[in-house]
Amino acid sequence: MTLSRNAKVAGAITESAAPLRFEVPTIEDCLREAGLDHADLQSLIAGAKAIPEKRFVGDFTAPSGAVLGTSGTYSWIDGNLVIGGNSTVTLDGVLVVSGNVTVKDNAKLVGKGVIISESPAAPAIRVEGNAKVVEEGGTILTIAAAGGIKVSGNAVLAGGMLASGDIVLTANAPSRPAPATAVRLVMGLDGDIEVSGNGWLGARVYAPNGEVRAAGNAKIYGSLVGRSVSLAGNVQVDYPVSLRD
Questions:
Q1: Residue pair 15/226 in contact by the 8 Å Cβ criterion
Q2: 73's torsion region: left (phi>0), alpha (psi -120 to 50) or beta?
Q3: pLDDT for the residue numbered 1
Q4: 86 exposed, middle or buried (CB, 10 Å; 0-12, 13-18, 19+)?
Q5: Distance between CA atoms of 51 and 140, rounded to whole angstroms?
Q6: What values do phi and psi take at 243, rounded to 5?
Q7: For residues 69 and 95, is the Cβ–Cβ distance under 8 A?
Q8: Where do the domains of the chain lie?
Q9: What are phi and psi for residue 151, nearest 5 degrees?
Q10: DSSP β-bridge partners for residue 110
Q11: What is the DSSP track for 52-102?
Q12: Tens digit of pLDDT for each residue in 15-48?
């Protein structure tokens, strides 16, 4: 682990050439946090294509007021999904998108459920501008099954994240997340995870095969685990008491 400039850690620092002795997170753990206790990623994708309640063929720009899915059901967009402008769109259930997902401008995606992009793009899922993905009535899990995730500008992406590729995050929450309720898993299966920004990010960051880099004025309420971990600038890591047991 590397610390530079004014970076600081409140809590435990563990560094070892041997495997870390802690409970290794899994894809199933991410799904359980989203309320899917007996599911796997491939079955969710297959289910959305086989028995979708809602299906959209081609690229889809969601209008304000749109509801993407229904609790306990699957929806499938066979193309790209764009949520932009000043739109407010609701997510519920499991939504699979064969292409890229973009939430931009001043748009909001609110609700609960799982959104999965099959695109191999880096990033496959982008939240940018002043856009927000907000949990309401439950948890949200964002999955880039073959690509990466990027949050930039003043955007906020709440909830858990899982990506095959790189995850690039801007920590923009104005205050420290509530203990236990907002410290979700952010897992990069084969890529790096980068955190920057001027606000808070509540996350248990895990990159078993990549680097975890935090820089700028980012404040992380959670933990950072990776093949290597580096903190630079004025980064602050606050390790919650709830994760120490």
A1: no
A2: beta
A3: 53
A4: exposed
A5: 21
A6: -95, -5
A7: yes
A8: 1-24+182-245, 34-165
A9: -115, 125
A10: 90, 134
A11: -SEEEES-EEPPTT-EE--TT-EEEEES-EEE-TT-EEEE-SEEEESS-EE
A12: 444 444 457 889 999 999 888 887 899 999 999 9
Checking DSSP bridges between strand 101-103 and strand 125-127, what pairing results, if any? parallel
The pTM (predicted TM-score) of the whole model is: 0.88
Q: Two tokens at 62?
A: 């969601």
Q: Determine if residue 48 is left, alpha or beta; phi over 0 gives left, psi from -120 to 50 gives alpha, anything else beta.
A: alpha
Which residues have a Cβ under 8 Å from the Cβ of 67 and sit 6 or more positions away?
A: 89, 90, 92
Closest CA to 29 of 21, 20, 37: 37
Q: What are phi and psi of 133, to 5 degrees?
A: -110, 115
Beta-sheet strands, E only, within 79-198: 81-83, 88-91, 94-97, 101-103, 108-117, 125-127, 132-144, 149-151, 156-157, 160-163, 167-171, 184-188, 193-197
Please write the tens of the pLDDT for every residue from 134-176. 999 989 999 999 999 999 999 999 899 999 999 999 887 777 7
